[in-house]
Design a protein that fits this description.
Oligomer: single chain
Number of helices: 9
Helix content: 55-70%
CATH architecture of the largest domain: Up-down Bundle
Order of helices and strands: HHHEEHHHHHH
Largest sheet: 2 strands, antiparallel
Number of strands: 2
Shape: globular
Radius of gyration: 18 Å
Length: 203
């Protein structure tokens, strides 16, 4: 297996397992996934091991690879961690006057989950620490299935993203910090509802 094959398989598998099609605790087997991704089982298995290390999948002795169980503690921890990462990224005084602008996107037509991920990655790009980008990328991957469920609870997600993007473009750090606090508090308050939605049958 060449590095190119592994990277391609890993990327495609990560998108597949974070697509919102899997329920918490659902078993993931190499052969069916290999058929879906048109790959051999060896790179699929290696990619699943990599995703376990990134906490995107889990492995148990009884069930093998599974989609992670969603508990209140886990989701609260992940949301709180993401809140800290996004605000800490631009807290360094050295970045106060060098914040990168977000990628242009049309909120009316773009996928709101993708827009959220892109915006949060832009926040990470303000940090002088390169690990910030990796950490935000990982939290984006782990939260993607949950963010896909938010449409069932929050009808104003476009307005929420605008409330984050505008102070970011204006380089208004205090306003952005307040908007991020509101954004994450709303989700922390809805943890029980989000967990309930995550266990519903996928269609």
């Amino acid at each position: 297996m060449t590095p190119k094959v592994f990277i391609r398989t890993y990327s495609e598998l990560k998108m597949e397992v974070t697509s919102g099609r899997y329920k918490p605790g659902q078993r993931l087997q190499a052969r069916p996934l290999a058929d879906v991704l048109r790959a051999s089982t060896s790179p699929i298995t290696n990619a699943m091991r990599q995703l376990v290390g990134e906490q995107i999948l889990e492995y148990t002795a009884d069930d093998g690879f599974i989609f992670p169980w969603v508990t209140e503690r886990r989701l609260r921890d992940l949301l709180s961690w993401t809140a800290w990462l996004t605000t800490a990224a631009f807290e360094d005084p050295e970045t106060a006057h060098s914040l990168p602008f977000p990628d242009d996107a049309d909120a009316a037509s773009a996928d709101l989950v993708e827009m959220t991920e892109r915006l949060f990655l832009n926040f990470a790009g303000a940090s002088p620490n390169s690990d910030h980008v990796w950490s935000i990328t990982n939290s984006n991957d782990r939260l993607r299935p949950i963010r896909m469920l938010e449409a069932n609870l929050f009808a104003d997600r476009t307005e929420e993203l605008t409330a984050l993007a505008e102070p970011w473009k204006d380089r208004n750090r205090p306003a952005l910090r307040r908007a991020l606090v509101r954004y994450h508090k709303r989700r922390l308050d809805a943890v029980s509802q989000l967990i309930g939605l995550s266990y519903q049958d996928r269609r």
